[in-house]
Amino acid sequence: MEALDIPLARFALLYLLLLLPLYFLQRLKLGLGREVLMSVVRMSVQLFLVGIYLKYIFAINSLLVNILWILVIMVVANLNILKKAGLAVRKLFWPSLAGVACGTLVVLGVFLFLVVRPTPLYDARYMIPLAGMLLGNCMNGNILSLERFYSGLRKSESTFLSYLLMGATLKEAVHPFMREAIRSSLAPTIASMMTIGIVSLPGMMTGQILGGSFPLVAIKYQIMIMIGIFSSLVISMVASLYLSLPFAFDRMLMLRPEIFAGKKKG
């Protein structure tokens, strides 16, 4: 059994759902109408283009093509992380990318080599979607953790300096800020895991059921994904934060102002 296809004429009716939200936004004078329309258009175009591209990727099913695709989306995600976190790409690109890669590739490797074990192991139907789901969540988590960590350090610089004056090492001095950044960034994922299946049915599980999978098979995949998302989040956030420290602090253990977007040295 396959999912029912939606004819384009009926699919176009979906966009009528936007009329009521746009009306409310206009009445409340939030100034978001143009931004919402642009985001919907961009989302639709991007997804259709990706759908066409993935059709060929799945047909080719090449290890090299799959790896290149994952590298591209990791770079794009990393650029978005630094932009949204308000950090300078020029200063923190590599440590942030390494952190994202750690979180994504470690968990993806466990999925492909130990749990799912598709044939071949690099089967694009599994490798690409799983990498995309992990990377998307790593991106959102790293935006929050990096932004809160470095903005917290900047706002509470006197507290950080007092730790150093009391003899703390750099890692010891930043630990309270790192702990708070990671805790707050993980809160949405933990809350989602606690209510999943009761308050809401997750997207992947719903998609698999609509696509014809048995509910228990879909549940197994969803549990795998949720555990993987949580694991990749923690790995990527911890790795990104620790790897960024040598780039963010000078030899005197002072926070470099140029790591923030728009800030130049001197």
Short description:
By secondary structure, the chain is mostly helical.
How does this structure look, described?
The chain has 266 residues and is mostly helical. The chain has two domains: 1-60; 63-259, no CATH class. It is built from ten helices and no strands. It has helices at 8-12, 19-27, 33-60, 63-85, 89-115, 124-155, 157-165, 170-195, 203-210, 215-248. The longest helix has 34 residues, at 215-248. 24% of the residues are buried.
- Structure summary, number of beta strands: 0
Instruction: Determine the fraction of residues in helical runs and give it as a percent range.
Output: over 70%
Number of helices: 10
Average pLDDT confidence is 92
Name the features:
10 helices; 266 residues; mainly alpha
Topology:
Layout: H1 8-12, H2 19-27, H3 33-60, H4 63-85, H5 89-115, H6 124-155, H7 157-165, H8 170-195, H9 203-210, H10 215-248
Helix pairs in contact: 4-5, 4-6, 5-6, 5-10, 6-7, 6-8, 6-10, 7-8, 8-10, 9-10
